[in-house]
Design brief:
alpha+beta; Heat Shock Protein 90; five-stranded mixed β-sheet; four-stranded antiparallel β-sheet
Length: 428
């Protein structure tokens, strides 16, 4: 989730209980104020009616235009049980407007002749349900309006102040380790961003230095190993060709020669794995996957012709082309195909299919491989003599470096490796 969306989400969560609390406070305060005003009016009107009853003067009009009243004779028992003054809500009938929610005041008083009366005064007041509904509607509208306003202001302020961070992120996205990188041009007067800029440049410089040192070390180590190995190999070959040796001595020298060949191959393979892991294949070009596959199939078919394999290669009508390092593309295809040709039993079958964005290689097999470990270094499944267990490790390293999807499955007596180039990462 992007930072601005997280901020917006948390602001919305913060505003929601705040607006709910404000709505409740507004509602109860409004009802309380209306009650106070209404009760004051009822008190004054009640005093007026009682005063006129006791003085024998004409009573106020009771025509339903504002405050209405009823005078009801009551007995002493009622006076003892009923509170002398009581406020409450109830619906009352008004001649001009019908039944309406009303605020009611009941008061018990006694006349000079000792008779008790219940004076009931009432007036129309606000409908609490309607007030609650109206308040809720307007609060929701206010919440939405306030939220939109806050979001717009927040985003404007956020993007204006966070611009140096996005410039830094853009610069980091364009970095190429081992390649020429432009200097960071990100002027800002914000202290935190200035520190972040300095830390990013410092980290890049350290990484570049470590990368160059490691690259130089790998190159030197490879050269220093290859040279003596080549010399030893040449001397062993000279001994075999130019000296009189017994059969046992010849067999020993041939064994040494095979071992040296394995060491040379191991050195080259480990060197390539290290280069892939260190991202030392930045060069990219437009690669035709069917063309690379066809060339490799022809080479391996000729090499393993004596096994009598049935090789079925079908390319799509639409060419699969990707932006990818040429060496990595060749290594990926060659290692998968070589694995298939080597481990397919004689008279077995190899199927190569290329779909829209997928390369699939299947070959005859006896039992499934360990899908969790086949792409690990030095994993060996068949125990073939001279196997290093690094072919599929190279495939796994290329998969991680290029962001590909490489899958393994086993079914119907066939091993199946598939390589998929997702569109978003097909430009490697």
């Amino acid at each position: 989730m992007r930072l601005i969306y997280r901020i917006a989400f948390r602001l919305a969560l913060f505003l929601l209980p705040l607006m709910a609390a404000w709505a409740a406070l507004f509602y109860f305060k409004t009802v309380d104020d209306v009650n106070d005003e209404t009760d004051d009016a009822l008190d004054l009107f009640t005093e007026l009616v009682i005063e006129r009853v006791l003085s024998g003067r004409e009573l106020p009009p009771n025509d339903g235009t504002n405050i209405m009243y009823d005078i009801i004779p009551v007995g002493e028992q009622f006076v003892q049980d009923y509170p002398s003054i009581r406020y409450y809500y109830s619906e009352q009938y008004f001649p001009l407007i019908g039944y309406e929610p009303s605020r009611i005041l009941t008061t018990v008083f006694m006349t000079d002749d000792g008779k008790y009366y219940l004076l009931k005064t009432y007036t129309p007041t606000i409908d609490k349900q309607e007030l609650m509904h109206t308040t809720l509607v307007w609060i929701v509208m206010l919440y939405v309006l306030l939220l939109i306003t806050v979001m717009i202001v927040t985003m404007l302020v956020f993007y204006r102040n966070i611009r140096p961070l996005y410039r830094l992120l853009g610069w980091l996205d364009r970095l190429k380790i081992g390649g020429g990188n432009p200097p960071l041009d990100n002027p800002t007067d914000i202290t935190e961003f200035r520190k972040l800029n300095a830390a990013a440049e410092k980290a890049l410089n350290r990484y570049q230095e470590a990368f160059e040192a490691q690259k130089e070390f790998i190159g030197n180590a490879s050269h220093e190993l290859q040279t003596p190995l080549a010399v030893i190999g040449n001397r062993v070959e000279w001994l075999i060709d130019n000296t009189e040796l017994s059969q046992k001595q010849t067999e020993e020298l041939l064994g040494i020669q095979r071992t040296l060949g394995s060491v040379v191959k191991l050195n080259r393979t480990l060197l390539m794995l290290t280069k892939i892991d260190n991202g030392q294949f930045p060069e990219k070009t437009r690669i035709s996957i069917p063309k690379v596959v066809l060339e490799s199939v022809e080479i391996f078919s000729e090499i393993y012709e004596d096994k009598g394999l049935d090789v079925d290669f079908r390319a799509p009508a639409v060419n699969l082309e990707v932006e990818m390092n040429e060496s990595l593309a060749s290594a990926l295809v060659n290692n998968l195909l070589k694995n298939a040709f080597i481990y397919t039993p004689a008279q077995g079958r190899i199927c190569v299919r290329i779909y829209e964005r997928t390369l699939e290689i299947s070959n005859t097999g006896r039992k499934p491989l360990d899908a969790e470990h086949i792409f690990e270094r030095f994993y060996k499944s068949g125990g073939r003599e001279g196997a290093l267990g690094l072919g599929l490790a190279i495939v796994g390293a290329i998969q991680r470096y290029c962001g590909l999807e490489v899958r393994y499955a086993f079914g119907e007596g066939m091993h199946r490796f598939s390589v998929h180039w997702p569109k978003k990462v097909s430009e490697f």
